[in-house]
Please model this.
Amino acid sequence: MYAIITTGGKQYKVAKGDVFDVEKLDAQPGDEVKLDVLMLNDGKKVLVDADALAKKKVTCKVVDQHKGEKQIVFKFQKRKRHSVKKGHRQNLTRLEVCSMPRITSTAKKAASTEAAAE
Model:
């Protein structure tokens, strides 16, 4: 069972117990955050209906706040004796997935009635 979630303008594929890094969130270690779900898959059924997924959230626990690896930015202009070396470290939040929503029978019925109406 996995879900596709969105945060910080990016999408992540997560399952229960996964630990992953996202762009910095305003939360302290130990806090719980609820993230929006774009798709649910339980191995047999896939749920992508936006109306049914609007109510579902993935609950994650904040493990820590840290900085990512250093990214080197090097600019060079030949024959002009010009070079600039800069670095950047992105602030990140490490999350652990605590609970995942389930695909309920009402969501299946709603999806089947919409398919029949079309």
Summary: The chain has two helices and nine strands. The longest strand covers residues 57-67. The radius of gyration is 20 Å. Residues 85 and 97 are 38 Å apart (CA to CA).
